[in-house]
Design a protein that fits this description.
7-stranded parallel β-sheet, two-stranded parallel sheet, 10 helices, binds NADP nicotinamide-adenine-dinucleotide phosphate
């Protein structure tokens, strides 16, 4: 099978590509810079064909069609955290995937589209709304599609995952007071495996919506603690940041393109983002890899207030 992995140089794309290659499939990598992609690819993917794709201009099915020649399945793992010039949320997350779906329908190709949990039409963040619209357009396209919504990802070579690991390694964990939503983080290698399985499914068995998560459900403060515990470090002090302060930090990071912290991610963190039906184990055929470790006894913070920590289920803060 020949799979075109759009965003093949990215965190999700790289792991999906490795899983596909390990199963004997051939992969074509879609990237904005084929000439400079080599250093972002694992050794086993160095020989893969690369095709230049710029989502901001691929907004009709006619421009997609020649790019998809010779493929059986298209896996879209393209996403942006921040807009740059013409690379707007609407073009990259909505218009291009919607045109891609029409091209796939026309050419009879299967489309596996990587999205995320927690999207809502009424979200405040344009980032979240654009991804929601992209999903809707694909679902309405008539293509043979599967929309995959993973929870937060952990792994060694991801931009966001790397930041979260670094914060987790600090002796103090700052955490927005309203980041109470739980998520079920999963290992990116498991996601890669699940995506490879989905690429192999054809006909009526291809599930239209796939929600994926790990086994533990944690809010952000608990997750940071669990990652720290996984490295055997003493529990960190947990600092609850007032929500307006965290929002200001999100606005600043968005403005200056700093870190993965953004208003969209803060908005997501306020509500539970858990898979309704978690298909991870069914797709990979084994138990998911553990992410983080059960937490040791919590340590008291001496500023702001103590965040619930130490258990999967929040415990009430101790009186100060
Ligand atoms: N990371 C997570 O925790 C997580 C969790 C849930 C869902 N997701 C979703 O998974 C998808 C991939 O995320 P990721 O973490 O793998 O992101 P990533 O590491 O930043 O990779 C994004 C990829 O998109 C490509 N890209 C960016 N702008 C493009 C454009 N204008 N035209 C064509 N390609 C473009 C980049 O390729 P080039 O630079 O080579 O062009 C890059 O390989 C996103 O939809 C994201 O929302 C991620």
């Amino acid at each position: 099978m020949r799979v075109m992995v759009l965003g093949g140089t990215g965190f999700v794309g790289r792991h999906a590509m490795c899983a596909l290659l390990a199963r004997g499939h051939s992969v074509i990598i879609g990237t904005r810079c084929p000439g400079r992609a080599a250093h972002r690819l694992p050794p086993q993917a160095q020989g893969c064909e690369r095709r230049e794709v710029h989502f901001e201009i691929l907004t009709t099915r006619y421009v997609w069609q020649p790019l998809l020649a010779g493929t059986d399945v298209v896996l879209n793992a393209v996403g942006i955290l921040r807009e740059r010039g013409g690379q707007t949320y609407d073009r990259v997350h909505n218009m291009a995937p919607s045109a891609l779906a029409l091209a796939c329908e026309h050419l009879g190709l299967r489309l596996i589209h990587v999205s995320m949990l927690g999207l809502r039409r009424e979200a405040r963040s344009r980032f979240l709304r654009s991804k929601f619209s992209g999903e809707r357009a694909i679902a309405g396209s008539g293509a043979d599609y599967s929309i995959v919504r993973p929870s937060l990802l952990d792994g060694e070579d991801g931009f966001g995952a790397g930041w979260i690991r670094r914060v987790a390694s600090l002796p103090i964990h700052p955490c927005p007071a309203d980041a109470v939503g739980r998520f079920a983080a999963l290992d990116v290698r498991d996601l890669g495996d699940a995506l490879a399985t989905l690429c192999e499914i054809s006909g009526d068995s291809l599930p239209r919506e796939v929600e994926l998560g790990g086994t533990a459900r944690r809010a952000l403060g608990e997750y940071l603690g669990a990652l720290r515990a996984a490295h055997g470090d003493r529990p960190a002090l947990q600092l609850s940041l007032p929500a307006p302060l965290a929002r200001l930090a999100g606005e600043l990071c968005d403005l200056l393109h700093l870190s993965p912290l953004s208003c969209g991610l803060l908005e997501l963190a306020r509500r539970d983002n858990l898979p309704r039906e978690n298909l991870l184990q069914a797709l990979i055929g084994r138990a998911p890899m553990p992410v983080g470790r059960d937490l040791p006894a919590p340590r008291r913070a001496y500023a702001f207030r103590v965040l619930p920590t130490g258990h999967e289920t929040p415990v009430p803060p101790s009186p100060q």
